Amino acid sequence: MTRLLLASGAFVAAFAVLVMSAPQVFGCAFSVVPTTYEPPIDRSAHLTGLEMAGFNQIAPSNVYFGIPNVATGQRGERVFDPDPYVPPTLLKAIGWIESGMRQSQSATFGGVDDALQSFDCGYGIMQITSGMTSPLDDGWPSLQQSLVATHYLYNIGRGAAILADKWNSAPANRPIAGTDNAGDPRIVENWYFATWSYNGFTGPFGPGRRNHPASEVYDWPRTPFSCGALDDGYGHSYGNFPYQELVFGCAERPPSVSGDQLWDPLALSLPDLEDPLWGEPLSLETWTACTSGNPELPCANWDLMDMPSPKPAHFDPVERPSDEVAAAAHGSPVLSVSETSVSALSNTITISNIGQGILAWRADHEQEWFAIDKQAGVALGSDVVCTPGAPCQRDATLRITIAPELAPTDGSFGWVNIISLTTGQLWQIGVTPPAITVEPIDTPRPTFTPTAVPTPTPAVIIGDVDCSRAVNSLDAILILQFGAGLITGLLCVEGGDANLDGRINVLDATLILQLEGGLISSLPPP
To answer: Which of 33, 96, 337, 407 could be disulfide-bonded to 427 (CB atoms 3.0-4.6 Å)?
Structure first.
């Protein structure tokens, strides 16, 4: 036995705690909680993001982070509103109810720290749980999951998209509020059922959260909820109200920070359960009939719960942020990484943003003989505000650790891929195990001789435009964004011409989706 082998054994033991193939340690998307930037405590950046989301200014053409056109009209006569819209004040209230409007779980405002991750895999300001309970990219968190956890704007965007999807669940899978005004989405009260659904369209009976307003667990009549001062005469216990009443009450009685209310109060009306117009659709008897006699089932006969808008009805006065404000919120991040290749047993890489704004990144690899200590995080541009005293490391670090006992001996190497999640920039770091000279036991220390890492040009994979060496729906989305001018380039542009017609357009994106769905067997199609 040599000193080198003893040292290597200890190295492998330490290596086991790092990230080899993103094991699902906590039952959530991330086995290592990623870092995020939390804007200053006045919440002005958060509020701007919530207003942008209401007017679809975060990722307008993205199917995951952009809000869809919402349906309007009576049951059987629904059409889509041409302008995607969610009332911004409603989003602000949801953001406060869900997290206190925080992206980081440490609440270190104006700094970089661990992302907020709840016990049930809810992430960030809007507590996005759907799609966050397991890693979705071959054992790694997907690019969408990484953006939800690391970037407050995209977390908000996803929350707004989920709320809009809940709205669009009517009439097939939800009742309609606003039968007297064609379910107009500009009337905030018409979002009653969608808001209820954001937390779960649960009924008055059974275990767990009960969001039905007539549930026996809630007093009736009851004093409305408030996010304001504890002595304002309203209710403040979350457990005493169904979710939609928490949100509506918070919108009308907003919280304050440093003595200033975070938004202008928006008066909202709740259904009057003592009036048959609302009391009957929201009665326990209607829910039971809706669930075909089984009170523990979700409702199926949604038309039984259709109701007019609670009165008086209100519009949200918040105006669309200017394009200049939205552009400043997005910034213009540019990815830079300190190394292109490594060959030591332990390597610390610096990830920087030499542009402006927040750069959200994800790292992954395929080989099992080295590990990384993080899966995702952020790097800050020089313009991003750091609060004095807050932990605000602008550059991120990534540790790459090689296990020599697992490493190949045939001269092969691997890659760590670091991608900028909003721009698509990809930086690849070549990883080669060091050439190790084994000395006798009386030699004081082992000798490590680094070997230069070649940087090969990877072969073109038709359909792979993000250089991930895989072809999937993300490539299709990037091609659509490229065609729409939302991004200016593709990392592996040579792979974008899926039908080999000399162009990159929607036809190529469609073929990629057909391949992923099993409708065709190869690219180019046979």
So the answer is: 337
